[in-house]
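Action item from last week, closing it out:
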Amino acid sequence: MSSLRGRVPPRSGAVLPIPRALWFAAVAWIGLALVDLFAATDAFAANRRDYEADRIATQLGPEAVGGAPAVASTAVIATVAAVSTVALTAALLAGRGWARFVLVGLGIFTAIVFAGDGRWSAVAAFVLVILGAFAMVVPSSHRFLAAPDAR
């Protein structure tokens, strides 16, 4: 039996196909992981040894130049977030409904870290989080993630 608003979630033995909206969300989340990796490589590259600072330190003394560059915390956070986003996207496509909440929280956290660091990738991260979040609340995606037999 089906309702006017779509198919009834399957009973035992039947497998619900992954809806297009959820595939769109997965593409948005993988895009966010790519933005994270790009921001991580950019942050790691910005943390390289500054030879100009070394030259000034030898001429004027070490007090003229600030200390050694700090650990690129943005790069570490972005790398961990990228790996986590890919793993959570796989869980989402496997029908794990809890992954949608973690993905949105992780995406917002990453975008805020990028914004706090003044990186352009914050804008791309916010756009991809919005696209991924909205694609996951479409009725077909919600129905797939809420179905107990979709896993």
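Closing note: Residues 25-43+71-146 form one domain.
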